[in-house]
Amino acid sequence: MAAHKKKPGEKQPRVNTDSRGQLIDVTLRVILEQGVDAVRIDDIVAEVGVTKGSLYWHFEDREALVKAALTEHIRRLSAETLTGVSEALDESSGQDDYLARVAPFIADPYDAEQVRDRWGKLAILVETRNHPELLEMMRDVQGRNIDLFVELMTQAQKAGVLRQDLDPRAVAAALNAMYLGSNVIDMLGDSAPTPDAWWGLITFFIGTLFPPPTDA
């Protein structure tokens, strides 16, 4: 079906005020449960309860809808981590406090909700690799997220929390890799390290990013 083209002076169809968000949510659920190829316009509009005209008012075509859903998913997953790291930087009373605040946002493999969200992100990253038309979009989204982390790491250097000799982009990439990779704990079952052992290693790793203590 050809994409809906808005004409000069054309009024927006009367649709639910949040129909765009509902279309994205339903599309995202289909992608997470069945994959990108399972997204069908007829099914999406039927579930949301809008017309195809309403969908095409918000999105140029099916690809635009899929891209919007994937972008929103990555944005949501990154928002909590970014907020947590930023608030830790603003509110911590010192390095030990900062460490305690920031570690769970970087790699918590024992929080069921975080584990589920990370599996969703990993599934989408794999899915987009099988769709060249989506791969560049995902690289752009991931790049923008890394840029936000780089900004936070730069702020941490200015605040004296992060060592000056470290490249903020390398640190941001490492933290994101740790975030995604921590789900290996979910797969290990009885072979997984204890929470105390895991958090001991994570705090040690993050602690190496801090400047060495100065002599009083």
Explain the overall architecture.
The protein is mainly α. The chain folds into two domains: about 1-60, Homeodomain-like (Arc Repressor Mutant, subunit A), CATH 1.10.10; about 70-205, Tetracycline Repressor, domain 2, CATH 1.10.357.10. It has ten helices and no strands. Helix 1 (about 20-35) packs across helix 4 and helix 5 (about 95-105) packs across helix 10. It is elongated. The termini are far apart. About 20% of the residues are buried.
Strand content: under 5%
- What is the overall shape? elongated
CATH architecture field of the largest domain: Orthogonal Bundle
Gyration radius, in Å: 21 Å
**Total beta strands:** 0
Q: What is the count of helical runs?
A: 10
The main β sheet shows up as: none
> What is the ordering of alpha helices and beta strands?
HHHHHHHHHH
CATH top level label of the largest domain: Mainly Alpha
| Low-confidence regions | 1-16
CATH topology of the largest domain: Tetracycline Repressor, domain 2
Look at the structure and give the mean pLDDT. 82
How many structural domains can be distinguished in the coordinates? 2
User: Alpha-carbon distance between the termini?
Assistant: 72 Å
Structural class: mainly alpha
Helix content: 55-70%
How would you name the CATH homologous superfamily of the largest domain?
Tetracycline Repressor, domain 2
Keywords:
216 residues; mainly alpha; Arc Repressor Mutant, subunit A; Tetracycline Repressor, domain 2; 10 helices; 69% helix; elongated; disordered N terminus
